[in-house]
Amino acid sequence: MGCSSSVIAIDLVNHLFQTYMNSFAIVMSSESLCPNWYQGKVRSMILPNVIFRLGGCSLLLTNKSSLKHRAMLKLNHSVRTHAGSRDEAYESCMRIEDEQGNLGFFLSKNIPKAAAKTVAMNL
Questions:
Q1: Is residue 76 part of a domain?
Q2: Contact 13/24 with Cβ under 8 angstroms?
C-alpha cells in the first residue's frame, strides 16, 4: 500500500474503536519489502533505493479510559485525503522502466507541489 498504509491503518483503528469499547489494536508498518531495488543509472530513480528502504514502526493503540494516564500520545482527529485523481499528484511517483529495461520508481519534481496542495485540502 505504500506510504499511505500507516495512515489508513490508524484511520481504520479509529473507526473500529468507535464500535468496540475497551479494545487494543497493534499497527505495524514497514517500507518496501518487495524486490523494487533499482539497478540502473537514472538519478531520479536511484533516490527511492535510499528513501524507501529505511523505515518501520509499530504502535499499540487502545481506547481503554483506565489506561489514559499511561498513554504517550492521544489521537484527537484523523483525516485522509486521496489526491491521485489529479495528474500532477498521480505522476509524481510512478514505477517505470528505463532505457536499459530496469524497473524502478521515478520521483518527479512535482512531489512538494502535489503534497502542498493535498495538505491545503485538509485545512
A1: no
A2: no
